[in-house]
Sequence to fold (650 residues):
Amino acid sequence: MSTTPPKAPAGDVSRDPAINQMVHIAGSAQVPTVWDRYQAQHPQCRFGSDGVCCRLCHMGPCRITPKARLGICGADADTITARNLLREIAAGVAAHSDHGRVLARTLKRVAQGQGGEFKISDGRRLREAAHFFHIRTGGRGDLEIAGDLADFLLGQFSWSEEPNATLRIAPEKRQALWKKLEIEPKGIDAAVVELLHRTHMGVDHDYRHLIMGGLKCALADGWAGSAIATLVSDILFGTPRPVRSRVNLGVLAEDKVNIIVHGHEPTLAEMLALASRDEELLAHARGHGAAGVNLAGICCTANEVLMRHGLPIAGNFLQQELAILTGAVEMMVVDVQCVMPSLAQVVKCFHTRLVSTSEIAHNREAEQITFDVGNGYAHACRLIRAAIDNFPRRDRQRVHIPCESMELVAGFSNETIYHMLGGRYRSTFRPLNDAIIDGRIRGLAAIVGCSNPKVMVDNSHVRLAEELIKRNVLVLQTGCAAIACAKAGLLVPEAALEKAGDTLREVCEAVGIPPVLHMGSCVDNSRILLAATNLLHEGGLGEDLSDLPVAGAAPEWMSEKAVAIGHYFVASGLYVVLGHPLYVEGSDNVTRLLCREMEGITGGRFEWEPDPVIAADKMLEHIERKRDALGINVKRERKLFDMKARRELQ
Ligand code: NFS
Ligand code: SF4
Fold:
């Protein structure tokens, strides 16, 4: 606990009452949170936010000002901002891809019979992937194929003469453009290393060349590292199908042992999900006066176990400290990414045990119990037992669980969308394409990314999604953005009745889907790329991703991973609206390249727009412009697209 009482943030920090209530409680208990530290950082450094501070060598640090337009080495604002941006992209790509590597290694261990309780859960997805990458499947068992696939995927990380084979998932025209622009990555690790090299003092000094290099590395994320993470997770843990669950801090149970999984890698959480149903452990819990074991998640580990097991979500990024502040969490189990170092301070004020489980992510004040795949189940049981043993230490006087908890439906993988649209006999995207072509659905919007204390938490996500569905745009989501909209009740089919425009509502009702589809964690943005690719393959909406009436947005983003995602969307020809700018505004040239000129190069570009309603206007404008170009905005008779008419057309 701090000795000086933190300054309480003025007014509400979020549109979510559960967040506001807990921030208030934190203030009374004098436990500092992210909002207090945000205040303490004010004013934030302008050189940093403009991207013109360089400390890439030790002649510096240098910063660009009106009286010093060059760094000591002679680097100008263009070079400095571009290099700083590229280092962010490299870190984001590294984070997603290293996560993918951990999963590919797990697949390998399963294939070798050393994967403990892990197994191949979706043999069909395994075989489809093997077939796609020319790995022999005929007459072979799952494990044999899995071993070859794991080797193949692990091979995608190192440098090679050839572009990454996983790029072949993309539409052909897009692949050809990447080749022409010379931005095909040739190995994921190699792409990251190349960026670090190019941005070292005294190497690449052409901002345009630098930015194109950034796109190349970003492609190694969306179409390689993240795609591998998603694919292998589906193979090992099952491809998500629609599943109902609940979200927000109210999912924590007053009478049960609450365990929170937080971070990004799904492996340990999978085992905890299994072990939380273990009869012996449940009896142990009863023996300690608890009615059961309640496993809930935060951030993307939560999204992973939600998608596959329907486990409840306690909150998104900015609710991690608040979950502990409820006083009702016996254990928080963290792995990698988006885990605030402050958690170690918050748990000191409560009985919560903070357990760190990744070999690469330690916190000196957390307990380190490194997870080992081969002993996964036993490991999970040990953790749950320790959490149960901690239950009697809960101070009932200090328990404050907000009542907010909302229902949601998640699990919209591409396979699910195929299945739901096409029905039992004919899995297809056709009905979606038809609805877009005849204008009942104007287009698709991806709303993704983090939460950020700089803005009213969750507000932009929810307002943007509401505006878009009102205007008949189907919304796809991942990450903390999806959790934000889920808390606001947008992820249930009934939301279509209340909030969607007339024609989108008709489609949602006919198919039985919400107007906002939860496609998973942030690495599952690869599912969004695939959904866009599937739309193209289905036909009638152009030949390249940049032809599609599709737009992306990250209204409250904060992480370097979000920077990488934004760049692979733009490199894939998509229009991306960010709620606040990248750290590049110190260079007019870099800003113009990213926000204007890029459209003539990749077909995609960035836009900054803090106001969610104006962002919706801009996204819709983009979508309508694409519809015009496709020639599908001419007024048509609806009957043209009934089954009979389609048969006649054929
Ligand atoms: Ni994505 Fe998921 Fe959330 Fe942002 Fe962090 S949890 S990987 S980075 S904060 S959306
Ligand atoms: Fe300064 Fe150049 Fe060194 Fe950057 S690389 S710190 S601009 S001298």
Q: What stands out?
A: The chain has three domains: 77-236, 249-398, 413-630. The CA atoms of residues 14 and 456 lie 5 Å apart.
